[in-house]
Write a structure and sequence with these properties.
single chain, 88 residues, flat, 82% helix, mainly alpha
């Protein structure tokens, strides 16, 4: 039984609980610093889908703009890094 729990959790039960407590403390601190609350995340997701429905999915057009904007940096950097590694 213990081996199955360890395999499922990826570590021992005690260590998993300690890791979850530490991560929860850090996330709670960050959320408190930004005045975020779990219900606000739920409302943000709900508002996103409501706005997406209301605008007739026109909001997805900005994804293409972000993709092109990011690609102007990522693609040349990728090519330069590949060329530098090719010499080795």
């Amino acid at each position: 039984m213990s081996d199955q729990a360890n395999r499922f959790l990826g570590d021992t039960i005690g260590r998993t609980i300690v890791k979850l407590l530490v991560v929860s403390l850090i996330v709670g601190f960050v959320m408190s610093a930004f005045h975020w609350y779990p219900i606000d995340v739920f409302y943000a997701i709900q508002d996103f889908f409501r706005e997406l429905w209301r605008t007739g999915f026109a909001a997805l057009g900005s994804v293409g703009r972000y993709l092109v904007l990011g690609a102007t940096i990522v693609i040349p950097a990728f090519i330069i890094l590949r060329l530098l590694n090719y010499r080795r």
